[in-house]
From TrEMBL:
Coiled coil: none annotated. This is GNAT family N-acetyltransferase. It comes from the Bacteria. GO terms for molecular function: acyltransferase activity, transferring groups other than amino-acyl groups. Residues 100-229 form the N-acetyltransferase domain. Keywords: Transferase. The keyword Transferase applies. The lineage of its organism: Bacteria, Pseudomonadati, Pseudomonadota, Alphaproteobacteria, Sphingomonadales. Signal peptide: none annotated.
Length: 229
């Protein structure tokens, strides 16, 4: 099971979440409405050519989450890279927190979720990213202050916690912890082990995740590719 985490995007989009994928031969990308994630079968020429075909317009970009930086195929260029830390939950699953502030977010919250994600930058967020799976949030006076939910499912028994973010005005209130515990309770109920990715230099987030029972599994790299000029 853990081997599936070495290539989380490829294994998700060719497996349990294939219904969200756009395929081009030996490469896949998620429907752009969900985000920019993509992967190739390997680095062979046919797979790299298929990967390049998934970038269809100027300004379009794809994000590859792999163990190492991914080389740009012909026609594409590396726009940027960033080191990530992949962490896996190794604690004891806790009961679902009972807190009246927690709300299950839905379509009516999509605009607020998009705005919060783009204001806090937990990772890429597009117009329908909230449809990956259940997202929970906390509001105050109708304003969304924090949220957390799920993203990739690279194998049966694994699910990624994602979209964890808090409005700066509500930081220090423990909302990220509260909402992550709610998401993790859902995972536990269906037999999934949580994992997540964070930017490797985000010491504050890493410390929080460690208090929740996550431990570093391996370093990863996100490579962002776009059309070559």
């Amino acid at each position: 099971m853990s081997e599936a985490l070495d290539r989380p995007v490829w294994n998700s989009l060719t497996g349990l979440q294939a219904g969200l994928a756009i395929a081009s031969g030996a490469a896949v990308r998620i429907d752009p409405g969900f985000g920019p994630f993509a992967a190739a079968r390997d680095r062979e020429e046919d797979a790299q050519t298929a990967l390049a075909a998934l970038v269809r317009a100027p300004g379009d970009e794809i994000w590859l989450v792999e163990a190492e930086e991914w080389p740009a195929p012909s026609g594409l260029t590396v726009l940027r890279t960033a080191p990530l830390l992949q962490m896996v939950f190794e604690g004891v699953p806790a009961d679902c927190p009972e807190d009246g502030r927690i709300e299950l977010l839905g379509e009516s919250d999509a605009a607020a979720m998009y705005a919060l994600a783009h204001a806090t930058r937990p990772g890429p967020w597009s117009t329908t990213t909230h449809r990956y799976g259940p997202f929970y949030g906390v509001k105050r006076d109708g304003r969304l202050l924090a949220m957390a939910g799920e993203r990739t499912r690279p194998a049966k028994g694994l699910a990624e916690v994602s979209g964890v973010c808090t409005d700066p005005a509500a930081r220090g209130e423990g909302l990220a912890t509260l909402l992550m515990r709610r998401v993790m309770a859902d995972f536990a109920a269906r037999g999934d082990r949580p994992f997540l990715h964070t930017y490797a230099d985000n010491a504050e987030a890493i410390a929080l995740y460690e208090t929740l029972g996550y431990r570093a599994r391996r370093e990863m790299v996100v490579t962002v590719l776009g059309r070559a000029e």
